[in-house]
Amino acid sequence: MTITExxxxxxxxxxxxxxxxxxxxxxxxxxxxxxxKTFYANLGWRLxxxxxxxxxxxxIQFTPPGSGCSVIFGKYVTAxxxxxxxxxxxxxxxIAAARSELVDRGIKVSDVFHAGDSFTxxxxxxxxxxxxxxxxxxxHRSYRSFASFSDPDGNGWLFQEITARLPGRIDxxxxxxxxxxxxxxxxxxxxxxxxHEQRTGQHDADWFTWYAEYMVRExxxxxxxx
Length: 226
Fold this sequence. Notes:
The protein is α+β, with helices and mostly antiparallel strands and about 230 residues long. Helix content is about 30%, strand content about 20%. Helix 4 crosses helix 5 (about 205-220). The model has no long low-confidence stretch (mean pLDDT about 85).
C-alpha cells in the first residue's frame, strides 16, 4: 500500500478537516541565554522577541530565513537538559551554498555528507541512521544530502537538501520562500531544459512555459515535463 493509499484509508469515515494546524515553535534548552542569542544571531536568523520579567523569566525567539517555524529559548522556558535537542532539520535547496554561508559567518559546520544503504556505524544518528558517506549524494537525490552543526550547548542541527518533495507532501500552489530558492529552481530548470533541447535536437521557442511547468511540478513531486 502506498502512502497516498494509506492516507486515503485513514481519511475515510473521519471528520473533514476544518482548521489548519501550523507548527510554530521549537523550544531549545540552553545554559547561557546571552551566548545562545549571539550564536543564533550570527547564523543570520531574524530576532523576533527578547522578553524578560525581572530575573526569573526570559524568552528569546529567532526565525530561520524563509521558515514558517521559529525557535525559542531562555530562562525557565523548558525543563529539558541544555544540549538535549537533537535532529533539528533545516531544509535547503542547495546544501553546498547553505554550508558555505554559515562557514563564512564563522560557524563550524561538518563537511557535506550523504546517506548510504547501511544504518549502522559510530557517527551521530540522523534521518538515515548513523553512517555518513563523504560528499553530496552521487545521484543528487532529494532528501539524501546533509551537513550538521551544533550550538554552544550541543543542540544539534542538520541541513537537508530537498529540491523535489515526495508526492502528496505539498498542499496548495507551489511557492518559493526566498530569492535564493527561486534562483536554485531556475538553475535546475535550465539544466533539465538543456537536456530536453538536446533530446529534441531543436531550440524550444516556448521555453518559458516548459520552465514554468518544471518549476511548479518539481517541488510537489509531480511528473516532470520531458
